[in-house]
Design a protein that fits this description.
The complex is a heterodimer of chains A (674) and B (305).
Chain A (H helix, E strand, L loop, with lengths): L7 H9 L14 H19 L4 H20 L6 H19 L5 H17 L4 H17 L7 H22 L5 H25 L24 E2 L3 H5 L5 E7 L10 E7 L1 E2 L4 E2 L13 E4 L3 E7 L6 E2 L1 E2 L9 E3 L5 E3 L7 E7 L2 E4 L5 H6 L9 H13 L3 H14 L3 E2 L11 H9 L1 E2 L1 H14 L4 E8 L2 E2 L6 E4 L3 E9 L3 E5 L1 H5 L1 H5 L2 H4 L15 H22 L3 H11 L6 H28 L3 H15 L10 H11 L4 H16 L6 H13 L4
Parallel strand pairs in A: 14-15
Antiparallel strand pairs in A: 1-5, 2-7, 2-18, 3-9, 3-16, 4-5, 6-13, 7-12, 8-11, 10-11, 16-19, 17-18, 19-20
Helix pairs in contact in A: 2-3, 2-5, 2-6, 2-7, 3-5, 4-5, 5-6, 6-7, 7-8, 11-12, 11-14, 13-14, 21-23, 21-24, 22-23, 23-24
Chain B lengths: L5 H10 L4 H12 L4 E4 L6 H12 L3 E5 L6 H5 E6 L4 E6 L6 E5 L6 H13 L1 E4 L2 E4 L5 E6 L12 H4 L4 E3 L6 H9 L3 H7 L6 H12 L5 H16 L9 H17 L7 H12 L14 H11 L4
Parallel strand pairs in B: 1-8, 1-9, 2-5, 5-8
Antiparallel strand pairs in B: 3-4, 6-7
The chains are: A alpha+beta (674), B alpha/beta (305).
Amino acid sequence: MPTDMTLPRHRLLAWFTRGGADGRVHSALAAQPMAMLLGGVVLTTAPHLWRIDPLIACLAVLLTAWRGWITWRHKALPNHALVVLLACFATASVYLRGGTLLGRDAGVSVLVVFVAIKLLETRTLRDTGIVACLCFFLAITAFFYDQSPLAAAQALVATCTVLAAMIGLNSIVPSWRAALKRALALMAQALPVMLILFVLFPRLGGPLWSLPDSARAGMTGLSDSMSPGMISDLSQSDAIALRAQFDGPIPPRAARYWRGPILDQFDGQTWSRTRTFPFRPDMAVLRGRGELTRYEVTLEPNNQPWLFALDIPGQIPPEANYMQDYQLLARDRVVQRLRYRVSSYLDYEALWPGGKSARVRALSLPDGSNPRSVALATQWRADSATDAEYVQRAVRFMEQQRLVYTLSPPLALGPHTVDEFLFDSKEGFCEHFAAAFTVLMRAGGIPARVVTGYQGGEINSVDGYMEVRQSDAHAWTEIFLPDRGWLRMDPTAIAHPARIGDGMARALRRGDGLPLLMREQFSWLNRLREHWDALSNAWNQSILGYDQAHQRNLLERLGIGALDSVLRTVWITAGVALALAAASLLLIRERTADAPAQREWNRFCRRLARQGVVRRAAEGPRDFTERACAALPDHSALLAAIGAAFIELQYGPQLTDTPRQVTHLHRQISALPF
Amino acid sequence: MHSPLEPILGTINQIILGKQREVRLALTCLLAQGHLLIEDLPGVGKTTLAQVLARVLGLDCQRIQFTSDLLPADIIGVSVYERDSARFNFHPGPIFSHLVLADEVNRATPKTQSALLEAMGEQQVTAEGQTRALPQPFFVIATQNPSSQIGTYALPESQLDRFLMRLTLGYPNRLAERALLAGEDRRDLIAALPAQANADLLLGWQQAVRRVHGAPALIDYVQALAEQSRSCGLFESGLSPRAALGLLHAARAWAYLEGNDKVIPEHVQAVFPGVATHRLRPRDALSGAPAGAALHELMASVPIR
């Protein structure tokens, strides 16, 4: 240690960057594959950076960049103490920012930042191995967040890069091209194993472990209540809500009402759902006319129990409940993509008015709310002889009131939202229409409730699935007439028939803030999106949708379904063990396999052996070449050159251009006329 | 690719006729900083070889005739009281020279032998409590007479291991012997030879030998030879790590002598009999098979990949 005390700060800095106690200041690892490993780390951590705390993400990026600089400029690695300090700091930050070290987000944060820290003490090959293992694990953790084909492709690229880096780091003469080629070959070799494990490995009934609530925070979809503005917010989202595949003809656009949560409780502002009980929809309460429309729905997770079906559900999946308000409910919240078969009557009589309290709710309005609407309704009631006439008046009113259908209605701030919509602003989205019509019905003594769900759905021309997006979210009204049962009334359609006939885009005013994909000038984008959606649907159906039941089906068809899962696990374990044993045997052979120059020499010897000049096992290359030259004097010059080249490659000092020399040797041997 | 030692070899071969290979091995041994044991009958040119080596390389040479009454002090030197200066003065023995010819080393008692062998191993001697360095380079050529074993103390194997090589010169062939008989007196010839090098030059060459490249593939081969010697069952015991190291180093010196900057298996094979012959005792020694045959069998059984 220098005894100079004038610059203590610099000395401290110098001490920190001096290198480890072992005195190896510089890393002996080759720069090119090391850069590749850094690239692999970046690829692996990049998707996580947006998910973890920004501070931790910044730290990880900075540390990785530092290591990149070290590799690039051949600088010294930081002192061991600094690395330990950084690790402590990172752990503390994760704890302080997240409040815990457990769980998915904290775990991923720790992993991301520790990979970066590990890079700073990566001196030996063994260290790079640890970094690579961490990267592989991080690549898996990405699937905790996103299981789309894009995420899979990303993980694949990252894994391949890390593999190539490891190959480069472990080879004597690194070449990124060769390493990448080899990594790809490795991945290709792993493919059959992956397929076998994918098909045969026992599936768990649920997710591997239950995800914390934070994992569900981002799910969008209809909720169990509706207040002005909620659905118009939802319709800004292009996300898929559900996909459907029809057995028979596809129902017309006007019939594509996907029945969701039924909202019958109104407090003047918000419509909310009441829990009802399941019942059996027999002939007494549900009479369907015409054919059942059968289809299979793949529902995106929405963290709610609703299962959507076309209005009105007929036969329901066994795992669902048919509620008394004709809604399908799953037993649990849908937190994973769910596939179910269901069928619907598009033409029906739903005759069950609901229980006593439900009937009361279907008529109740908060006292004093929306006085202008109530007054209007009271007047209509006095003028109408029958319920049907009353409804007619209301429909005519909706048609004539010149209500504007817009995605950005003025924010309703007052207490009487329906009055404001009907008489003042006259601008609203479907939830305004539905709420207003329901209030008018109730004020006139007709049981009514709001039904939310989706209206519409486009057929993806690539794979034929119907795609229903969040932007198709809709709200309408259901009224109960004693002789006809519940009737669907869509006040939006009454005021703007185009909304249902042509879709939202036509019905909206020009310049209104349409979702991107509904704009006509982006039709090419739409086309692209269709392909992408078809791909992700195929991915969902065949990869992610391969669950326990599908596995059982497949195995039964293969004739091994009789094996129970324990026995199967034993078989698979035994199979994997055998495969690993075979792989290690191969590996040992690979280890003892010949270097490229040696391979060329063996080829040379084989060629000469065909000419009768057989190399004895213990005959050195020079002796053999001399003998060969004597035996084949016509080619002695070439033979001698080959011998000399091989001796140089095999026994000479390491050359910088060995691969080129080997290629040259190969050409020379190929040039032999025999 | 010609080594600077090529003319020296030529000169020596003018004096020692028909023994090119042995001369080359002897010089290899010298370059590899090892010591040489020559086992042969009297009168085949052992002394001449030592003298010509010393003369041509510009080294000083001492000959010690080992007898059963030779004492360590006769080799190392003694302190003699000198009246003029009134104190003991060390008179260095014959071992203080570059090249020492220890003739019939097996005739001396083990105590005397070990004094020589220690000097060979340590490159220094301790006399009367004082350690004295030997001149550099230091090279011992010891000879053994295999024919009359009465009253001799054969060197034990552990001591033999200290010699890098063991050679036999053998009778010259007809032509060489004819030339020897017809030519001038060897002693006169040697006296007339010019020195073609000196101690410093030789030290430089010895350093250069250390830099001759031994590739991993070659080290594999040396290792394979050593392993095979241990496991093949032809010998009572295999080559020691020191022997393997010596083999590699001797091969380096041989390569250098050939003017090569890298060792190839042929170099190892060239020095292998010399390096291994005194370290490997054939298991069926009594059956009369010569040791050389077993060594060649061993070499033939180790493939060069």
